[in-house]
Design brief:
With 200 residues, the chain is mainly alpha-helical. It has eight helices and no strands. α1 (2-30) packs across α3 (46-67) and α2 (36-44) crosses α3 (46-67). 22% of the residues are buried.
Amino acid sequence: MDKLAGLISNLELAIRYLLSGVAVYAIYLLGLCDPAPHIEWIGKQPIQAAFASVAVGFTVYSLYRIIFWVVGDGAAWLSGISAPSLERGTSIFYHNAYANFLLWRRKADFDEALNGYLHYRWAVVHFTYIVTFALWFAIANHEPHSLIEQWQWYAAISSSVLIVAAIWQSSFLFRVERELYSRLRAGGVESGAQTDEPPA
């Protein structure tokens, strides 16, 4: 079980930072009229390209969490679908409710496989949002005669499908965490309980 949790954790980090950077850079290249010099540089300098992808991924992911996800968290709190919203009857301040949720979510005896699984699912959701926003930016700011210009309708349709999927999935995960938190507070589920198999 520890090996599974470690694998999921590594996948989560790769999706959040490395894969996000690769996706954003790839979409940027699709918006260029002549991406050949960039592709040639990647072939000649793979290590530097990998570091650049991580740097781009870390920057984009961090900005996304600061600028956009604050809105997402707030919407989930106000609509009552997130776990911290269970605290709204005891505190009018979001930071108090969120602090209580984090203490539960990060506590040492929380099952590592379940914790890693939730982190992985959230990483996929965040990646989907980032790709969607990158596509929107490329559609609005591409160079003439670029692939994005040629495939503009496909990019628009793809980004529309992605944003719907991301909103649906984030709403689902907010509700899952809310249900887990609710059961724990009610004493129905013990944190750290071991299961034979990871969640499907």
